[in-house]
Design brief:
The protein has 2 domains: 96 residues, Conserved hypothetical protein from pyrococcus furiosus pfu- 392566-001, ParB domain; 62 residues, no CATH class. It is elongated. A 4-stranded mixed beta sheet has the order 1-4-2-3. A hairpin with a 5-residue loop joins strand 2 and strand 3. The protein has 5 helices and 4 strands; from the N terminus they run E-H-E-E-H-E-H-H-H. It is an alpha+beta fold.
């Protein structure tokens, strides 16, 4: 969008103003998982996006739940993307876009990805899933694991493609 400036700033989260009538909702269970993740790991992904109004106030366009969860987790400041020069119409369109453009998991790719984690690293996935299926991996829980035929409990090999089953 023409005439819009953006920058990353370290902001006090309590100074940010929640977007009124945020159309994105989160269940209590999902929210609790977000708070727990931020409490354990900090705010690692997806900074919130704010609109700086002419009076200097900062209104959250994307990340209302992340901001409240971070505050609840004890995080007082975070890097946020700040947009200036937005019209009210542009701000509302960005709120809509941020809330509707959510990808969906491809179940096969997700399962393959999870399998690769359990094969490549010595991680007990059951211990790091929370009750909504979010993985909270602590860096010290990841250890390289040697992959051998025996560790995979492989008994048969397809003579055509070499796939073990």
């Amino acid at each position: 969008m023409k005439g819009i400036k953006q920058e990353i700033r370290l902001l006090r989260l309590k100074d940010l103003i929640q977007y009124p009538n945020n159309p994105q909702k989160m269940s209590d269970k999902e929210y609790k998982g977000l708070v727990d993740s931020m409490r354990k790991q900090g705010w690692l992904l997806d900074p919130c996006v704010c609109q700086e109004k002419k009076d200097g106030s900062l209104h959250i366009l994307s990340g209302n739940h992340r901001v409240t969860a971070a505050i609840e987790a004890g995080i007082l400041e975070a890097n946020c993307k700040v947009l200036t020069g937005l019209t009210e119409k542009q701000a509302r369109l960005l709120v809509l876009e941020a809330n509707q453009r959510r990808g969906k998991f491809d179940d096969k790719l997700l399962n393959d990805f999870i399998d690769s984690i359990s094969i490549d690293f010595d991680i007990d996935l059951d211990s790091i899933y929370d009750d909504i299926g979010v993985i909270n991996i602590q860096e010290d829980e990841i250890k390289e694991k040697e992959i051998t035929k025996e560790s995979l409990n492989i008994e048969n090999k397809c003579p055509k493609c070499g796939y073990y089953y």
